[in-house]
Amino acid sequence: MRTEIRRRRRRLAQPERDAFAARLAQLAAREPLVRNSRRIAFYLPVNGEMDPRPLMDYLWSMGKSLYLPILVNFSKRRLWFSAYTPGDPLVYNRYGIPEPERVHDRRIRTVALDLVLLPLVAFDAMGHRLGMGGGYYDHCFAFINRRCHWRKPRLMGLAYEFQRLPLIQPEPWDVPLDAIATEQQVYHCSRIEAGRDRD
């Protein structure tokens, strides 16, 4: 399943990718979940992932603080998040993904982020996500599952509509998403819609 969806992502022509990313940015920028967040973590796309950069540029113009993930070389499946200004120098990690140069005084604690926009391979409307299989995001945000009330940071997946599946059976360690944005709509998952654990 992962292989087929990734293949379909890579087959998209660049004009189509750009159009989908622009549509997603328009939809997501209107969401209270996004508009009410100040410190927002993004990712830089690889292998055909939905491109968040049009949304990044818009939110940067609104004065939001942006962050990007960094792989930690000495710790398996660990992510740091570093402040990012469009145009900052980037380096490539061991997976060939661009990330900010490691500037320790620009790091932020994950619990201090308001919103994390993350990539995925597939999703369902309940907020379950299939990632690349490395478990980086689930490991990084596992503390959310252990909390009873405070839920920040919120997690929003970004994807193409064709990445939606009818149902994904979650694993015990999976951290569910609060929302998923595609080029067609924003899916609000049960934690938000039920109004539980609002900050």
Structure description:
The chain has 199 residues and is an alpha/beta fold. It has one domain: Rossmann fold (3-Layer(aba) Sandwich). Helices cover 26% and strands 22% of the residues. It has seven helices and twelve strands. The chain has an eight-stranded mixed sheet. Strands 4-5 form a two-stranded antiparallel sheet. Helix 2 packs parallel to helix 4. It is globular.
Entry summary:
The chain has 199 residues and is an alpha/beta fold.
**CATH topology (fold) name:** Rossmann fold
Average of the residue pLDDT scores: 88
Give the terminus-to-terminus CA distance. 36 Å
What strand line-up does the widest sheet have? 6-3-2-1-7-10-11-12
The total count of helices amounts to 7
Give the helix proportion (percent range): 25-40%
Radius of gyration: 16 Å
Q: Proportion of β residues?
A: 15-25%
- Do you know the CATH architecture? 3-Layer(aba) Sandwich
- The helix/strand order is HHHEHEEEEEEEEHHEEEH
**Total number of beta strands:** 12
Q: What CATH first level would be assigned?
A: Alpha Beta
CATH homolog superfamily? NagB/RpiA/CoA transferase-like
Q: What low-confidence regions span 5 or more consecutive residues with pLDDT below 50?
A: 192-199
Q: Could you say which structural class the secondary elements and strand pairing correspond to?
A: alpha/beta
The dominant shape is globular
The description of the largest β-sheet is: 8 strands, mixed
User: What is the domain tally?
Assistant: 1
